[in-house]
Amino acid sequence: MKLIIGNKSVSSWSMRPWVCMRHFGISFDEILVKLDLPDTTLEILKYSPTGKVPALEDQGFWIWESVAIMEYLHEKYPEKKMYPVEIKTRARARSLVMEMHAGFAKMRDILSFNARKQHKNFDFSGAAEDIARVKTIWTQCLQESKGPFLFGEFTIVDAMFVPVVGRFQTYGVPVEGAVKDYYEAILALPAVKAWYHEASLENFVATNHL
Ligand SMILES: N[C@@H](CCC(=O)N[C@@H](CS)C(=O)NCC(=O)O)C(=O)O
Fold this sequence. Notes:
Blueprint: E1 2-5, H1 12-23, E2 29-32, H2 40-45, E3 55-58, E4 61-64, H3 66-76, H4 87-102, H5 105-110, H6 128-145, H7 156-171, H8 177-187, H9 190-201
Parallel strand pairs: 1-2
Antiparallel strand pairs: 1-3, 3-4
Helix pairs in contact: 1-3, 1-7, 1-9, 4-7
Bound molecules: glutathione.
């Protein structure tokens, strides 16, 4: 399989399936398309009809959209349990995946993903409602699952929230209690550390992406 991604420093949508595949031990070749260059869209269009990354190739078959890619992997590798096994728990997990995919516009805009930046005294009050909703989701899930991840073991839902943890880190959003434990568990994952390490080695820059 081939996973087409954008710059690791800014491409939060690429990060989700990349971390997911690395975490679940699904091997793939990576093709990184540099974002924000004059030929970026043309380059991505070779792989993805939307002109956006990520995209996944499996034996000549192409899938685009981060969530569709992870859903495909979940179906292809059921033994990896990338979603909770119980039907209603799985439905709840998918509600959260879609909430993350479709929502949190203010947080994505004001706290745009950047794996190489660290802000002090950043004013994130414009995204306060989104941040509060994220913390509520995490608190409720962790209360029920007892952690360390939202549904116990790491699932696609956690992959969706990995870049949110990254944003909290970059912009200094305060975390405490169970939310802090979760934040730390995500940042300690080898796949997440590997993404940040590779982002730090990128010798090209791109503007922030949502
Ligand atoms: N809904 C898409 C969003 C993909 C997206 O917006 N990707 C950005 C990078 S993070 C992109 O490809 N931008 C291309 C460009 O800006 O030229 C998904 O979930 O995969």
